[in-house]
Amino acid sequence: QVQLAESGGGLVQAGGSLRLSCALSGRSFYVYAVGWFRQAPGKEREFVASITWSDGDTSYADSVKGRFTISRNNAKNTVYLQMDSLRPEDTAAYYCNAALGAISYWGQGTQVTVSS
Fold first, then answer.
1. Exposed, middle or buried, 101 (CB in 10 Å: 0-12/13-18/19+)?
2. What is the pLDDT of residues 22-76, one digit of tens each?
3. For the purposes of burial, counting CB atoms within 10 Å of the CB of 73, is it exposed (0-12), middle (13-18) or buried (19 or more)?
4. Cα 81 to Cα 1, 49, 96, 101, distances in angstroms
5. How is the beta sheet containing 68-73 ordered, strand by strand?
6. What Cα–Cα distance (Å) separates residue 67 from each residue in 63, 86, 102?
């Protein structure tokens, strides 16, 4: 199993920045990729960004390209999501996800609120 713990959410004004962290524990050595997803009230959970654990290949949703940056620190077993130029529509609960073979693990989520 893999355990995920998100942190770094909060309240920020539009145009501001936040950095989310996702700390992995357990069988993190076998993780293929880590991703960030978000879910706003009344909406479905959506993909934000992902990074492969070994090569660092990244992928982004069109809505965050050029504003968000995903990165990893393998030594610290941590994945980061740097969020710049935040908009009110970025307001959501942000979840970390890890793919371990065919199994997907989720963290508890961290709330990001962007005020206009």
1. exposed
2. 999 987 778 889 999 999 999 999 999 999 988 999 999 999 999 999 999 989 9
3. exposed
4. 23, 8, 10, 23
5. 2-7, 18-26, 78-83, 68-73
6. 9, 8, 30
